[in-house]
Amino acid sequence: MKKFLNVLLAVAVLVGCQPQVGQAAATARIKDVASLQAGRDNQLIGYGLVVGLQGSGDNLRSSPFTEQSLRAMLQNLGISTQGGENRSKNIAAVMVTASLPPFASPGSRMDVSVSSLGDATSLRGGTLVMTSLTGADGQIYAVAQGAIIVSGFSATGDAAQLTQGVTTAGRVPNGAIIERPLPSRFKDSVNLVLQLRNPDFSTAVRMSDAVNAFSRDTYGAPIATINDSQEVVIEKPKRADLARLMAEIENLVIETDTPAKVVVNERTGTIVIGADVRISEVAVSYGTLTVQVSENPMVVQPLPFTDGVTAVQPQTDIIAQQASSKVAILKGSDLKTLVSGLNSIGVKPDGIIAILQGIKSAGALQAELVLQ
Fold first, then answer.
1. Do 46 and 174 belong to one domain?
2. Tens-place pLDDT, residues 142-151
3. Phi/psi at 134 (nearest 5 deg)?
């Protein structure tokens, strides 16, 4: 248990959850904590066919849309399919998705993800046929085609099957060519809107102060204002180039602030405690009662030269054990003190999860408890 809590403390330190007593606050560049509103990604989607599979494709009888798509594709290529019946399992219907990066220009490439729609067992070795990718407005922004890379594999024998990973989904690296640019007017914008990835008023104020300090030295006037905990608006100075201004602002270093949180995943036993988590003075006791029931039946043999029969005599042993429990006083002024207090009780991870939930219910945990 002590080793687990020491590892927990090390993980908290690695993710930046260090005690702030006697230490400087966490700092980061603006580009690492905020994103440009005009520079967001856009989701694209398309429907296509994968060919070249080794008998692991869709069953055309149970996936009629695959057969309809195959006939339509062959007809577009000038091949008549009337009156014929296709039982091939080398083709599969798939959904193709991608994220169109901001400010993408025609001719550039991007990755696409391919996922099976029918009852195909594997897409390994397949090739995605030319597929149009459309946006939410119905316009075609990219066209995808290429060989699919599948990380999972599946091996099947007469009496056993081994599967690792997912074989019905894969990726086509640089498989889509952008055909239409997004309507973007970055150069014509009169201001920049920065959105915090983790909304927080303290971080927004510090960002605004850092930008205004920079603008006073460079342009002689403040240019940043705060809309709310997520948005900071920056007005473009008259003699400034917008791209160069953004490059200078995103490299400014600010002090970040985050709310106190304890994240608990009960399935995996993972506990992440933030640096600002505090616990009011509270007494905690943890103990469990274990009841073990053992059945040890005994075989009773009859005496020699008698008409008796062999019988089974039931025998049940019940043992009740209660683990030794300790009562500890917890008062966490910082992360290290809190972990040391939990460490002194000597419980397992599931016990720590129960203790944290109990402390939260008692109102002594001065943080948000997030259960996953």
1. yes
2. 999 999 999 8
3. -115, 155
* pLDDT tens-digit series, residues 10-25: 333 333 334 344 444 6
**Domain match, 87 and 7 both:** no
Residues 314 and 330 in one domain: no
Domain count, the chain: 4
pLDDT: which is higher, 62 or 331: 62
Q: Please list, residue by residue across 340-362, b when 16 or more beta carbons sit within 10 angstroms of its beta carbon and e when fewer do.
A: ebbbebbbebebbbebbbebbee
Measured distance CA(215)–CA(236) in Å, rounded: 10
Residue 129 in contact with residue 93, Cβ under 8 Å?
A: no
Q: Is 250's pLDDT higher than 80?
A: yes
Q: And the tokens for 29?
A: 């560049």
Q: Is 221 left (phi over 0), alpha (psi -120 to 50) or beta?
A: beta
* 333's tokens: 């002024």
Average pLDDT over residues 152-157: 72
In a domain, 24, yes or no: no
* 0.70 surpassed by pTM: no
Top-confidence residue, 30 or 160: 30
Q: Categorize the per-residue pLDDT at 126 as very low, low, confident or very high, splitting at 50, 70 and 90.
A: very high
Which structure tokens are listed for 65? 């849309």
Write the pLDDT tens digit of every residue in 332-369.
555 566 666 666 666 666 777 777 788 788 887 888 88
Continuous segment of H or E residues that includes residue 205 = helix 201-218
Q: Cα-flanking dihedrals φ and ψ of residue 9, to 5°?
A: -65, -40
Give the whole-angstrom CA distance, residue 334 versus residue 22: 11
Indicate the length of the chain as a whole number: 372
Is residue 82 located within the same domain as residue 140?
yes
- Give the residue from 116, 115, 174 showing the smallest Cα distance to 144: 174
Do 70 and 173 have their domain in common? yes
265 with 359, same domain: the answer is: yes
Helix (H) or strand (E) holding 283: strand 282-285
Q: At what angle do helices 335-345 and 2-14 cross, to 10 degrees?
A: 160
Residue 26, in any domain of the structure: no
Structural domain span for residue 195: 185-255
129 and 205 share a domain? Answer: no
